[in-house]
Design brief:
Lipase_3 domain-containing protein, 8-stranded mixed β-sheet, Fungal_lipase-type
């Protein structure tokens, strides 16, 4: 979603930097679950990348052979742009005892325009009954199109077939924003208990206000958002352009200030949001850092079916 940075970034950043962040959510607190780099690199990266392929099973066959695709849901997310398809899939793994919901990132100028116009037009709104926090209405609406377009039936089927399995919710870029909404929605309708869920996103933009971040942090004990070095998208939207309300991430950020090769160090941020961790980085933002996670070109690797030879998809 590189289009989110452009002319809006300076305004958002200035508003963000003038906000006081002496807030309870930023009281340094370690995550309830330990961060496992190998799990993220080998499993969550594959699940996230698989959404880039029209047939995610190709990625599973190459990287996670016991993971089985259930269904892909593809819907049109805009009534005034052409190439604005929102995509999510469901999968299950009887070895890992997990059900997966994963969402694809944005693609093309039309979809980026539709997202930004929706954010500016509708801003953040209250959409959940279990929290008074607010999220971007356009992201919620996009998720509901996917949910009502078939994913609701798919998730319920898998839930009832495998009632004891965990639910893993993930995504990259726009897919990460949809994953945040999806996780909240499933708890809001009492379909899943939050302790039975793992929420992991990459290259996410902020989607909600402080109250939403507080609720999401307190609700989901396994909750990570991964940031690659100078990825511009996590720094792109810091206030709601409609109401000028500051936006916040739920905890816990994991920041890799490197290429994210195996063995590279990372920082687990004990604060939620503000002038901490990746937000302290004053380097020039790098668009490619949004596309490359764990030193793999995420879209290209996914389109190719997640082959074993990752060297061809490395950033360096």
């Amino acid at each position: 979603m590189a289009g989110l940075e452009t002319s809006h970034r300076t305004f958002y950043a200035q508003a963000f930097e003038t906000t006081v962040f002496q807030l309870p959510l930023n009281c340094p607190t370690p995550p309830q679950y330990g961060y496992d780099d190998e799990f993220m690199r080998a499993e969550i990266m594959t699940l996230t990348t698989a959404a880039q392929n029209e047939n995610p099973q190709l990625c599973f066959n190459n990287q996670l052979p016991t993971m089985k695709l259930y269904k892909v849901t593809s819907v049109d997310c805009s009534d005034h742009y052409n190439d604005t398809t929102c995509v999510g899939y469901t999968a299950y793994d009887t070895k890992r005892k997990a059900i997966v919901m994963s969402f694809k990132g944005a693609h093309g100028d039309d979809q980026m325009k539709a997202i930004m116009e929706g954010i500016q037009k509708d801003g953040i709104q209250s959409v959940f009954s279990t929290t008074n926090g607010k999220v971007f209405k356009t992201i919620y609406d996009s998720f509901m199109l996917i949910w009502n377009g078939g994913m609701s039936q798919d998730v319920r089927h898998l839930k009832y077939k495998y009632p004891s399995y965990e639910l893993w919710v993930n995504g990259h870029s726009l897919g990460a924003m949809l994953a945040y909404v999806a996780s909240a929605y499933l708890v809001d309708i009492a379909l899943y208990k939050p302790d039975d869920m793992k929420v992991v996103v990459m290259g996410a933009s902020r989607i909600g206000d402080y109250n939403f971040a507080v609720w999401h942090t307190a609700t989901f004990s396994y909750n990570f958002h991964i940031v690659h070095r100078d990825d511009p998208i996590p720094r792109s939207i810091t206030v709601d352009p409609k109401t000028l309300t500051p936006l916040f991430y739920p905890r816990t950020e994991v920041w890799y200030d490197n290429y994210m090769n195996a063995g590279d160090p990372y920082q687990i941020c004990p604060e939620s949001d503000g002038q901490y961790c990746s937000n302290l980085d004053k380097n020039k933002l790098i668009t490619d850092d949004h596309l490359y996670y764990f030193n793999i070109d995420l879209p290209a690797w996914g389109h190719a079916g997640c082959p074993d030879n990752i060297t061809a998809y490395a950033q360096q």
